[in-house]
Amino acid sequence: MGWRTISGPLGAQVDNVDSSASFQYGTRCYAQYYDTSSAATTYHGDFVYVKGVASAAAGKWAALNPDNDTPALLPDGHIGGVGVFVSSLVASKSGWVQVTGKGQGLLAAAVADNAILYTTATAGQAGADAASQSEIMGARAAAAADSSSAGNVDVELWWPHCATVASAL
Question: Cα–Cα distance between 100 and 75 in angstroms, integer?
Fold first, then answer.
């Protein structure tokens, strides 16, 4: 099983973690996740090449910064672009963040299938509680999350971005 690049820069592998930048930050590519035992494509989407950030892990949500392509773990109250880390990208590394398609995102416990997603008080995690007032528009749960603990769950992304309820009106 693994990701294969369909279009993008030669040598792009979206699940790789690079010790030094292999591509210009902000570079995009399209890839599919496939199961070699059954040849069934499970996930697909668009990805953006970014600098790493402390504590980034596969599935955590990223607040994207188009000024310098250095993301942050998605904080509560964020306004702007959002993606999901494909791999663990610590601060000294570079790699890919998924911005469209079906992938895996860190969701709080007890998020229902098809739920609208919001930022949470836990940086890098999304949930279904609107109390935070920062909706992640363009993202939704594609499966139900475990009722007892947070974990990576199928999500669907379409260039997600955050806005507070007041700023979205």
Answer: 20
